[in-house]
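Troubleshooting entry. The earlier prediction with GLP gave an output that would not parse, so I re-checked the input for stray whitespace and re-submitted. Clean input:
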Amino acid sequence: MELIIQRDKNAAALLVARIVANEIRAQPRAVLGLATGSTMEAVYAHLVRLHQETKLDFSGVRTFNLDEYVGLTPDDPNSYRYFMNQHLFQKVNLNLANTHLPNGRAADLGAECRHYEQLIEQAGGIDLQLLGIGKSGHIGFNEPLSALKSRTREKALTPTTIQQNAPFFGGEANMPRRAITMGVGTILDARRCILLATGEAKADIIAQAVEGPITSMVTASALQLHAKATVIVDEAAAAKLKEREYYRWIFANEPEWQEYR
Ligand code: GLP
């Protein structure tokens, strides 16, 4: 795992966007794994800008989102399909037929989850997976005790997550209790993973995920098992990491990061 500390939230999001843009330029038919949440909004804003200013071409790109709430229609402003349409899909030249999210309204949710795994496989697997982190330590909606080998499935949300996301729904009472999410195992199959976390509210959970033990209680810690995982944080989210100086040294000196410094 690599840990990169950026000055602030915007610099961290810009770095993630540049990595994604380079992936698309190197592989015009790249398969991207995408994430939602407020942290990702800045990443998508930068990608839209790169599309406008540098003609970054999304026409061959295929996308698979991590998760979707159970029961919400695609035109519900709180659905992740709606979020993706608003922040990215409608603002770049992505072919909507190449964008995928689990269908949280499927009559048979189990079959929908199996189908989602098949679609990812048929696309050749995910080249680059973007991730946020919830306060419960989740990646996607892989709440505490999610098996580290889990695949796409339906999950019940923890009280921490319901509390964290309820403001978007105008209160806990209106928030779905369940979601479909790629499993931890599905995520670990991606060829590269990038997790972005910003703000002091994420400092504790980032320290646990990066420097703590690998545990299903904090599913983001499973990224320690991945051969090519990068965690990008701002100073605020880095505040509780013990080895900050070492991480800074790596980013400042490793040739791999030269073009991003
Ligand atoms: C939701 C998503 C996660 C995301 C998290 C972070 O719970 N299911 O994939 O990582 O939000 O949200 P935020 O960026 O708003 O802190």
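This one parsed fine. Residues 35-39, 66-67, 132-134, 140-141, 161, 165 surround GLP (CB under 6 Å).
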